[in-house]
Design brief:
Layout: H1 2-19, E1 39-49, E2 54-59, E3 74-86, E4 89-91, E5 101-107, H2 123-126, E6 142-148, H3 149-155, E7 165-166, E8 171-172
Parallel strand pairs: 3-6
Antiparallel strand pairs: 1-2, 1-5, 2-3, 3-4, 5-6, 7-8
Length: 173
């Protein structure tokens, strides 16, 4: 009885595990996701939990979302293999100051494309014509890379040329 069960599992059960592939668009902690499924987002850090490598980002305003969703918080957590850059060097999440503008590469969370309902707050009592009840970017909760403005533009090899310094007005041109 036991031998037939083991043989059955070896013949048919192994094939089941081989053909069950994970969804490539979801970031799993044990495998690197493909960058073609990533979403780039920038925004200001408003909360950090350095013990759990989590935080809240207030995304930059864009025409991608309804204006009522511009300043909704975006909760994220760093992937185990995710990296953070500050001033061009690797850093930990506790090195990031609140209010720092960050650029990030985000992936879908464990559940995939799901809707996260927003918390019940007084915000909804102030805005009566709220069109949706979920944060549009909430499914993209797994951060692969977070970097501040300096690190982002350093990696992009962006340069600026200063032609004139006005000491009286404190302006660079």
């Amino acid at each position: 009885m036991k031998l037939t069960t083991v043989l059955f599992f070896l013949l048919f059960g192994f094939q089941f595990f081989v053909f069950c592939e994970k969804n490539e668009s979801i970031a799993y902690p044990d495998q690197f996701p493909s960058l073609k499924h990533a979403k780039f987002m920038g925004g200001e850090i408003t909360m950090i939990d350095h013990v759990n490598r989590m935080g809240i980002l207030r995304p930059d305003r864009s025409d991608e979302h309804n204006k009522y969703h511009w300043d909704l918080p975006h909760h994220f957590e760093m992937l185990p293999y995710g990296i953070i850059y500050r001033y061009g060097a690797p850093a930990t999440i506790r090195d990031i100051d609140l209010g720092t503008h960050m650029h990030g590469i985000f992936f879908l969370g464990k559940q995939g494309m799901y809707k996260v309902p927003l918390l019940e707050t007084q915000y909804f009592q102030q805005i009566r014509n709220q069109p949706n009840e979920y944060s549009p970017d909430s499914p993209y909760s797994q951060a692969l890379r977070l970097e501040d403005d300096f690190s982002f533009y350093l990696r992009q090899k962006a340069t600026w040329q200063i032609t004139h310094i006005d000491h009286e007005e404190g302006k660079l041109t």
